[in-house]
TrEMBL record:
Single biological process term from Gene Ontology: folic acid-containing compound biosynthetic process
Cofactor: Mg(2+)
Keyword rRNA processing: no
Designated name of the protein: 5-formyltetrahydrofolate cyclo-ligase
Family, similarity comment: Belongs to the 5-formyltetrahydrofolate cyclo-ligase family.
Top-rank taxon: Bacteria
Enzymatic reactions: (6S)-5-formyl-5,6,7,8-tetrahydrofolate + ATP = (6R)-5,10-methenyltetrahydrofolate + ADP + phosphate
Binding site for substrate: 55
Top-level EC class: ligase
EC id: 6.3.3.2
The UniProt record lists the keyword DNA damage: no
Database matches in Pfam families: 5-FTHF_cyc-lig (PF01812)
């Protein structure tokens, strides 16, 4: 098993042991920090993700972004290539269904033909992060491929539990770091 696999397994295992109470409490803190970002004030298009398996809970944030009038996009896994597609979400209950890997994904009829190239903010999940913004995802390479092609001038924001900020990760040429990491304790500017 390589170092990335070891870290992915270690932090997925640690996350699986976290209590729902702790996840809920920390997720609210992360959501509130995100909503206070100065960059959000001028943003229109935000791409986020639907949380799963004890990740930082995002559904409250998604609802809040919709209520505040942001154009909200969520990804879906494209099986034909290692990449993500997107869809504009208007209603979390009507526009999502269980998709690949058990993740809530946009229903087929609202999926975009082309991914927008003008996202203002992209929220990125990860198993763990370094303070420099590098991350270990879940092993598919989908987000790195997506960010390389579609992040353009978007602010890339990672959500992480503070205890999952690690000293180092074996970075590869195709890895795309995030610009900011938000944890329940702090906001890390990676630049």
């Amino acid at each position: 098993m390589n170092k990335k696999e070891e870290l992915r397994k270690k932090y997925s295992n640690e996350r699986s042991k976290m209590s729902a109470v702790k996840i809920n409490k920390w997720s609210k803190k992360i959501k509130n920090k995100f909503l206070e970002l100065p960059e959000l004030k001028n943003a229109k298009k935000v791409m986020a993700y639907a949380s799963m398996r004890k990740e930082i809970e995002t559904f409250e944030l998604l609802e809040e972004l919709l209520n505040q009038g942001y154009l909200l996009y969520l990804p879906y896994t494209r099986r034909d290539v290692v990449d993500l597609g997107t869809a504009k979400i208007n209603d979390l209950d009507q526009d999502l269904k269980d998709g690949v890997f058990g993740v809530q994904e946009p229903i087929k009829r609202i999926r975009d033909e082309e991914v927008p190239d003008d996202f203002d903010i992209i929220i990125v999940p990860g198993a763990c992060f370094t303070a420099e913004g590098y991350r270990i995802g879940y092993g598919g390479g989908y987000y790195d491929s997506f960010l390389t092609k579609h992040a353009n001038n978007a602010l890339k924001v990672g959500f992480s539990y503070d205890c999952f900020i690690v000293d180092s990760i074996p970075a590869e040429a195709h890895d795309v770091p995030v610009d900011i990491i938000i944890t329940e304790k702090r906001i890390i500017n990676t630049k």
